[in-house]
Amino acid sequence: MKLYDFMTNPELAGREFCGPSWSTWRVIARLIDGDGALLSAEDQGLALQLTGRAKLPTVAPREVYIGAGRRSGKTRFGALVAAWLVAQDYSERLAPGETAVVADVAPDRRQATLALDYSRGIVHASELLRAELVTDNADALEFSHRTRLEIATASYRTVRGRTMAGAVIDESAFLRAEDTALPDLELARALRPALLTLSGILVVISSPHRKVGLLHDAFRRYYAADGEARGLYIQATSRQLNPLLSEDEIQAAMQEDPTAAASEFLGLFRTDVDAFLDDALIDAAVVPNRRMVPPVPGNSYHGFCDPSGGRGDSFTLAIAHADTSRRLVLDTVRVFAPPFKPEEVIAEIAQTLGFYGCARVKGDQYAAEFVVSAFRQAGITYEPSALSKSEIYMGILPLFTQASLELLDHPRLLTELRLLERRTRAGSRGDSVDHPRGAHDDVANACCGALLAAWQKPGKARGLRKFAYAEM
Question: What is the mean pLDDT of the chain?
Fold first, then answer.
């Protein structure tokens, strides 16, 4: 059965998705089926607008990417696609005892559970689908015709080893990073082989963000591409997909922040957010397989902390020095993941600092007084940094471009550096640099702070700021 028929059949999902507010999603369903020719002339015009094409594809795509505005029904449509896929019978192509899996992938378990709840609602509302259901729990729906819909968080490790009939990735542009800077690309690479046996479809639905990653790669390949490509890219505004949204509210958001609203509601990639460091700059600075550099008598070492209260973020320490050629060397990184007792972590950090002969450590200027006090009790003077986090990152940039750094081969550090985003700010405030939503930069902040502290000479803080912003 095709998606459009499943979506409009009142005995399946039609009672929910036949209303006028779902009309554009029904056009998209036709495109997923490869049946654009069955659309009315008006809907064909809309389909050409959504795809940027001069002519519609005549075959069903293997991969579908939908860059859509927020509050447009993305998760509910993804749940519909997942329910459609799991309702099919693949038994003739399955080995004895094998089950066809449909994966619904989301940035976190809460969102994945929401998507499964939507699919569950579709199944329970249909007597035909409900009759096939044999297992219904918090993680999966399993059917008598040997299919299973299961939720997964965005780990490329957990989706391997399955025979998949399809996969739906929700909010791919906001997946949480593990040990890779682009988890969406790694996830897609892991899913594609699993989809081969049953010729399963990959459907990716997300609000766009940076011009990087799986969604943007698909946009470059498939949007406005008139050939019969394996992929299809659809770009749609929130109001095109959900005409019930308030136009006045969207216009107010556009007036307040046009760039952000274009991403949030028009389905466009942000033009004010770029990767802060190129991969080539990071790769050139890494010393392969170097995990730490032991202290050498005569060197002057500098430590930098990114403190944490022991719940959300890690407590990190980095130590660096400048060698005789003025290259900046990252010597060690300590990462304490929560939960932990801050006093115990600070005691361990003090021992590491003492090992490198450091009686002082710089750190986040927003650190609570208890951090300063705990370091004092451990025999270490804690000095809040005179520079903000953005200023530290902007200060380290010329040292990357001049190939003046030697970084440790530390996976989390390298991932966090690759994820850093540079945002353009209006006026004279300068650019800001920070981690993306859902990610962290505790290790990157500590390491860049330590390297910058090693580069500075006493009394050079003002000159540093001038140097750091000279290229802007």
Answer: 88
The rounded percent of the chain whose pLDDT value lies above 70 is 90
CA-to-CA distance for 104 and 17, rounded, in angstroms? 20
CATH classification of the domain holding 291: 3.30.420.240
Q: Which residues pair with 164 in a beta bridge?
A: 101
What's residue 294's pLDDT? 96
CA distance 1 to 396: 57
Q: How many contiguous H segments (helices) and E segments (strands) does the chain have? A: 19, 17
Comparing 32-36, 164-168, 187-191, the range with the smallest average pLDDT is 187-191
More confident residue, 65 or 160: 65
What does R_g of the chain's alpha carbons equal in angstroms? 26
Could you tell me if 334 and 440 lie in one domain?
yes
Distance CA 239, CA 302 (A): 53
Claim to verify: residue 354 and residue 464 sit in the same structural domain:
yes
190/333 same-domain check: no
How confident is the model over 128-160, as pLDDT tens digits? 999 999 999 988 999 999 999 998 766 555 666
Do 445 and 333 share a structural domain? yes
Within 146-230, strands assigned E span: 147-153, 164-170, 201-206
If one counts the domains in the chain, the total is 2
Residue 107: is the preceding peptide bond cis (ω within 30°)?
A: no
Average pLDDT over residues 367-389: 89
Domain membership of residue 257 (yes or no) is no
Say how far residue 273 (Cα) sits from the centre of its chain: 14
Asked if residue 210 and residue 126 are part of one domain, the reply reads yes
In this structure, what CATH number is given to the domain that contains residue 40? 3.40.50.300
Tokens 């607008």 correspond to 49
| Residue reference for tokens 């290790």 | 443
Are both 294 and 235 inside the same structural domain?
no
Asked whether residue 296 falls in the same domain as residue 398, the answer is yes
Length of the chain: 472
**Which tens digits make up the pLDDT trace of 309-358?**
767 688 999 999 999 888 999 999 999 988 888 899 999 999 999 999 99
- Cα atoms in the Cβ-side hemisphere of radius 13 Å centred on 433: 24
Structural domain harbouring 420: 279-468
